[in-house]
Specification:
The chain has 312 residues and is of the alpha/beta class. The chain has three domains: 87 residues, Elongation Factor Tu (Ef-tu), domain 3, CATH 2.40.30.10; 111 residues, 3-Layer(aba) Sandwich (Rossmann fold); 82 residues, Ubiquitin-like (UB roll). The chain is 17% helix and 31% strand. The chain has seven helices and 18 strands. The strands form five sheets. Strands 9-8-7-10-11 form a five-stranded parallel sheet, sandwiched between helices. It has a five-stranded mixed sheet with strand order 13-12-18-14-16, covered by helices on one side. Strands 5-2-1-6 form a four-stranded antiparallel sheet. A hairpin with a 5-residue loop joins strand 12 and strand 13.
């Protein structure tokens, strides 16, 4: 879709909000709480969570943190994009949906990970559902949506934690998640260190009660157990080495082979590829076990066998 940036707002230190609308004022495709869109920024396609109320039909709202070490997307949006510009946007997709059967929803956000959580809060409030948000940031100045969340904080449904850059001074994640509660579902989104801490703290929770959205690569993206392997292309006949520290997608693109990628983190599904032989080392965040019998995401997954044959 070609959408227009109607407004750009200041949400917090280094965080801008972008409001996207149809050029002719028409309704946009519906989305559910937790959804994200793909946004083309220059030559890149990046994923951004929608933070506005899913009941709204005339706009999509995203929040973009200007990263100190940017892969290009956040820097471009903060520096080059202006209100009134037209941008290319994908239809919404959702890998981070609310569970309708949950009796209680425990939401944990780290930094800009608050974006999909905001849309969840709108939905939960509309259905008068029971929820609590634990929101972790470096400081109050870097806390997006603080003013909007203050009424819920007064009701003790939202708690703010500021660590000043030292996680030990912020939320004790392990303590907060020590006792699984029957009927409670946990939702978490944030930077890699935050995600790792919550994942570790919820290992004793039922897996079906845990829901997460990654937006940065894991700090353990290169494992000590990683080994080089080869990919064979069944239809085109190619045979290529994938070294440690590179992805299948990187190698194929360097060879001039057209493969689609977007998030490059294993959560959007754009690079879904069928494999015919070998055993993948799945490192994505979205595929179900049944899907993994036939498919892998080549932007992040590796191989447990010396050769992996792809249907390319």
């Amino acid at each position: 879709m070609q959408l227009r940036i109607r407004s750009i707002t200041y949400l917090a230190e280094a965080v801008n909000g972008y409001e996207l609308v149809d050029r002719r004022g028409r309704d946009l495709p519906r989305f559910a709480a937790g959804a994200h869109i793909g946004l083309r920024v220059g030559a890149l396609l990046r994923q951004y969570s929608l933070w506005n109320d899913p009941a709204e039909r005339r706009r999509y709202c995203i929040a973009v943190l200007r990263e100190s070490v940017s892969r290009g997307g956040s820097q471009y949006l903060h520096e080059a994009v202006r209100a009134g510009d037209l941008v290319e946007v994908s239809f919404p997709r959702n890998n981070f949906a609310l569970n309708a059967t949950a009796k209680r929803h425990l939401l944990l956000a780290g930094g800009i990970g608050i974006a999909p959580i905001m849309s969840m809060i709108s939905e939960l409030q509309r259905h008068r559902a029971e929820f609590e948000l634990l929101y972790c940031t470096r400081s109050s100045e870097r806390t997006a949506f603080r003013r909007e969340l203050q009424p819920l904080a007064a009701e003790r449904r939202v708690q703010f934690y500021h660590d000043g850059g030292n996680p030990a001074r912020g939320l004790d994640i392990a303590a907060a998640l020590r006792n699984p509660e029957l009927g409670t579902h946990v939702y978490f989104c944030g930077p890699a260190s935050f995600m790792a801490a919550v994942t570790q703290a919820t290992r004793h929770w039922p897996p079906e009660n845990l829901h997460c959205e990654y937006f940065t690569a894991s700090s353990q993206s290169v494992s000590e157990e990683d080994r080089p392997f080869r990919v064979k292309l069944a239809r085109s006949g190619g045979d290529y080495l994938v070294p440690v520290g590179e992805t299948i997608a990187n190698v194929l693109q360097r060879q001039g082979i057209a493969v689609r990628t977007s998030c490059e983190l294993g959560y959007c599904g754009t690079c879904l590829t069928r494999y015919l032989a070998g055993e993948p080392d799945h490192r994505d965040q979205v595929l179900e076990e049944n899907d993994r019998k036939d498919y892998l995401l080549i932007c992040c997954s590796r191989a447990k066998t010396p050769v992996l044959e792809l249907d390319i």
